[in-house]
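R.M. (postdoc): so does anyone remember the format we settled on? I'll just put the structure tokens first.
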């Protein structure tokens, strides 16, 4: 379906929904927290949406393919129509013009939110309730879609880039937007209160470790050690909860990989932003409407081993591909990176054990733990704290096996001491005075870790 057809479909309310809720004016909180200058205006009403539809119809009659115009050209064309419409008041003029530009060239009411660099996440809980995360805090905005048909038409436009689909037969989807943002959507009735869309934004310019140090995510000593670990080809796992900043940290750490190495990345929805030139990005594919043609992550991990990789980066291990990843780490692909959902380094290893068992290969627990202990060198634990800040709260080295149990030792940690008057988490980074077991391995590669990195001292 062309963009023009989708616009007409939204305008005349003919999107087929089963069942479709009645159109009603959007509910607005009182007061509504302002988010960005161009967010949906507080005076939105059914009349405003009707005016917008009228101008949109006139625009389609005037211009055959408005999506081919630049933003400046399209704004000028819309202003001509808005000025000629006596029903548009001066206060509505700018909002109507920008709203139509966003509708045609962007993603409608949420485009200003996606453009705001201070917003890290956009959450749509039904067509008339939109929240954002800004500086770690959840804020309700005044943005709103006209109705569920409008939201679904915009969602289809978002999915067109990645080739993914969503409908009643497949009511959930993971995808990515053109700028690399990650999108997840769940349709009604699975989402009881209305279609739910979550967009995790990523910086157009990926953070580097030096910036993370300035932001307080980790200390200088921790950064120096992680740089040596990546350059020295230690296998790292970045562990943490949802929204803790695992992918941001993984992107930053990948910048330490030498440019003369071949990197293969494997993800469900491609979001890793490597700065190296020699890279190959692989992405899973869901099955088609007949349930065929799906390519799971495990097949991609296996195939990556045949692509002559120096490093393999798996965006997130969440199933049986954990076994293939461990085998790759143990068979000459040192320096691999991945992320795992877990609340502590010990939980991370336990979850990897569980995921290996999901591979369907009957292995004794001792053999699985032996594989993990020999494959994984360092676990970087990330957390989202009470004030919304993200910090690396622990860097733990995997030492080996002892009496059937994987032994670990903490090298660095963030010790929280409370919350200050402004609600910010207070604390300091510390090192435990333990020289890593892999220090000699790194030294053999010409990487000498200064003793002061591991002395008992504050971070940064």
């Amino acid at each position: 379906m062309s963009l023009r057809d989708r616009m007409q479909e939204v305008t005349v309310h003919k999107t087929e929904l089963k069942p479709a809720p009645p159109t009603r004016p959007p509910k607005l909180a009182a007061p509504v927290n302002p988010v960005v200058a161009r967010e949906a205006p507080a005076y939105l009403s059914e009349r405003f949406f009707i005016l917008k539809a009228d101008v949109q119809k006139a625009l389609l009659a005037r211009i055959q393919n408005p999506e081919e115009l630049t933003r400046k050209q399209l704004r000028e064309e819309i202003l001509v129509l808005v000025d000629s419409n006596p029903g548009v008041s001066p206060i509505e003029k700018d909002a109507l013009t920008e709203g139509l530009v966003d509708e045609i060239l962007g993603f409608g009411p949420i485009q200003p939110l996606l453009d705001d660099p201070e917003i890290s996440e956009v959450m749509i809980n039904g067509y008339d309730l939109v929240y954002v995360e800004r500086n770690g805090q959840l804020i309700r905005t005044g943005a709103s879609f006209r109705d569920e048909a409008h939201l679904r038409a915009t969602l289809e436009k978002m999915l067109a880039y990645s080739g993914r689909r969503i409908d009643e037969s497949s009511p959930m989807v993971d995808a990515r937007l053109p700028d690399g943002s990650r999108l997840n959507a769940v349709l009604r009735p699975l989402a009881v209160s209305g279609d739910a869309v979550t967009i995790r934004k990523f910086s157009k310019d990926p953070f580097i470790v030096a910036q993370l140090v300035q932001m307080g995510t980790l200390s200088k000593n921790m950064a120096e050690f992680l740089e040596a670990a990546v350059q020295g080809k230690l296998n790292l796992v970045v562990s943490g909860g949802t929204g803790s900043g695992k992918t941001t940290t993984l992107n930053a750490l990948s910048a330490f990989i030498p440019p003369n190495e071949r990197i293969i990345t494997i993800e469900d929805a491609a979001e890793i932003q490597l700065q190296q030139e020699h890279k190959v990005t692989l992405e899973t594919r869901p099955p088609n409407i007949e349930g065929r043609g799906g390519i799971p992550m495990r097949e991609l991990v296996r195939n990556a081993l045949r692509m002559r990789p120096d490093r393999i980066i798996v965006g997130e291990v969440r199933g049986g591909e954990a076994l293939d990843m461990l085998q790759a780490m143990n068979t000459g692909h040192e320096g691999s990176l991945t992320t795992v959902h877990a609340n502590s380094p010990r939980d991370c290893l336990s979850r990897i054990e569980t995921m290996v068992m999901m591979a369907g290969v009957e292995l004794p627990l001792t053999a699985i733990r032996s594989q993990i202990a020999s494959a994984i060198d360092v676990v970087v634990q990330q957390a989202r704290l009470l004030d919304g800040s993200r910090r690396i709260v622990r860097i733990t080295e995997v030492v080996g096996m002892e009496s059937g149990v994987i032994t670990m030792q903490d090298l660095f940690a963030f010790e929280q001491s409370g919350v200050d008057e402004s609600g910010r988490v207070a604390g300091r980074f510390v090192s435990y005075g333990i020289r890593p077991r892999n220090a000699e391995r790194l030294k053999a590669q010409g990487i000498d870790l200064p003793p002061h990195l591991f002395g008992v001292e504050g971070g940064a």
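R.M.: ...and that's the designed sequence above, right after the tokens. Also worth knowing: The radius of gyration is 25 Å. The chain has two domains: 3-200, 209-454.
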